[in-house]
Amino acid sequence: MAVTPEEIGLCGCWQVIAVQRQSLDLTKPDEPAAREIGYYASSLTLDEYDDQAILAAIRGHWSAIENGTHYRRDVSLGEDACRTTERKGAAVLASLRNLAIGIYELAREAKRTKVDTFKSWCQQQTFSTAWPLLQR
């Protein structure tokens, strides 16, 4: 069913895109693939990108998130394992995780670290080693 972005409360948007995905749980090969539909809002007009270009943009967006920020936050900093339930506490922890990622990126850009992974870098940090990076 076609709807306009305004009809679903997304004024200023040119398109709403539905993408159907199927995923297999590789630990349960006998189970059927799970089906989900993801919805995306875009300011692109219909003539700016064809379907394949939009799908490539969506894949690129998720690839950057999963392989970049999310991986660092979850694997290196254990975000998904964190059981903080209070909204303010979760916001503070998210800010501290973002700060750690930012300090690491500053250190890499300034060539002030030879460590090649974020997790290894985090394990070596203390306040006295991180603070000078913020002074620049």
Question: What brief labels describe this structure?
Answer:
alpha+beta, 136 residues, single chain
What is the rounded distance between the termini? 54 Å
- Topology as a string of helices (H) and strands (E): EEHHHH
Radius of gyration over C-alpha positions, nearest whole angstrom: 20 Å
Question: Can you count the helices?
Answer: 4
Q: What's the β-strand tally?
A: 2
Please outline the major beta sheet. 2 strands, antiparallel
Give the overall silhouette: extended
| Fraction of residues in H or I helices | 40-55%
Secondary structure category: alpha+beta
Average residue pLDDT: 84
User: What percentage of amino acids are in beta strands?
Assistant: 5-15%
Strand order, largest beta sheet: 1-2
Low-pLDDT regions: none
